[in-house]
Design goal:
This protein is α/β, with parallel strands linked by helices. It has helices spanning about 1-10, 30-35, 95-100, 130-140, 155-165, 180-190, 200-210, 220-225, 245-255, 275-290; strands at about 55-60, 65-70, 80-85, 105-110, 145-150, 170-175, 230-235, 260-265. It has an eight-stranded mixed sheet with strand order 1-2-4-3-5-6-7-8, with helices on both faces. Strand 7, helix 9 (about 245-255) and strand 8 form a beta-alpha-beta unit. The chain is globular and about 55 Å long. About 45% of the residues are buried.
């Protein structure tokens, strides 16, 4: 049963329809159904296209061909590589990309392997995705100007692993709500369903790794952060039901380079500009200005 759930969690299907709602949004009867049948997990699809000029660039990752959208601006201060979260895709970051462009940055939006327009159907919630981060950042580093990373949730964990274990070195990071470890995020999902996390969370992590050829108990953003010296802005929603304050505190404390943290009161596991647009924009703009060359 644990292997079945782990497989459904890490493999997207070609079926049409929407993804199962977040655990905190399910009724008691729906939660029982999920425990028996697993989640509905169709491959995320890009429903929107950029309103700004862009070109589609395909990059070759160890995980398969990645589809990216690359948009430049005149006299760019650098480029921001944007990476999405679990069961998402690059079109979900168009608002953020547009804001970075207004600040004078080129943008590269990437579908992780298995998501959107990229090849495959496997998602390892941050482990294999680190290779996709490395592929995109290294491609950008062959272009003019410094490279910044903006990533949320799963994308933020993948970024930390890419820097800690794959040698990726961007100029600076902006990371939103990375979870502490794969085990912690599995435990949070079970708690959200009011189900005791032990032993099912441990079994889910075990079989999720076995099914995808890695040891998932080592998927640990706090451990990665302790090996990251990149200047990092860490953002967190104080009402996040899936990433806790202790997880966020531990990641921030572990970061080795210059760092800053901004919490967003009342925001959950969601884009922070939804409820705090002015604060999000001000925080991001100030961080970027500290780490970009003057034009």
């Amino acid at each position: 049963m644990a292997f079945f759930h782990a497989w459904r969690f890490t493999h997207f299907t070609t079926e049409t329809g929407s993804h199962t709602d977040n655990p905190e949004q399910l009724t008691a009867l729906q939660k029982v159904g999920i425990l028996l049948t697993g989640i509905k997990n169709p491959k995320p699809v890009n429903q929107q296209r950029p309103a700004f000029p862009y070109r589609t660039v395909y990059l070759s990752s160890p995980n398969g061909r990645l589809e990216t959208w690359y948009a430049t601006v005149p006299r760019a201060r650098g480029t921001v590589a944007l990476f999405h979260g679990y069961t998402s895709c690059k079109s979900k970051l168009l608002t953020e990309a547009g804001y970075f462009r207004s600040l004078g940055y080129n943008v590269l939006l990437t579908d992780f392997a298995g998501n959107g327009g990229s090849e495959g159907n496997v998602c390892t919630v941050g482990h294999h995705e680190a290779d996709d981060v490395a592929t995109a950042v290294r491609w950008l580093q062959r272009q003019p100007g410094p490279v910044f990373v903006y990533a949320n949730s799963m994308g933020a964990v993948a970024t930390l692993r890419a820097e800690a274990e794959l040698g990726v070195r961007p100029a600076a990071n902006i990371l939103e709500c990375p979870y502490g470890s794969m085990l912690q995020t599995a435990q949070s999902r079970f708690r959200s369903m009011h189900v005791p996390p032990f032993p099912m969370a441990n079994l889910l992590v075990l079989w999720g790794g076995v099914a995808n050829d890695f040891w998932a108990f080592d998927l640990d953003a706090t451990r990665y952060a302790a090996q990251v010296s990149t200047p990092t802005l860490l953002l967190w929603g104080a009402a996040d039901p899936r990433v806790t304050r202790p997880e966020t505190d531990a990641i921030f404390a572990a970061l080795q380079g210059p760092k800053q943290r901004q919490d967003f009161v009342g925001s959950g596991h969601e884009p922070y500009w939804w409820k705090h647009k002015a604060l999000w924009e001000h925080t991001v703009a100030r961080w970027c200005s500290r780490h970009a060359p003057v034009r």
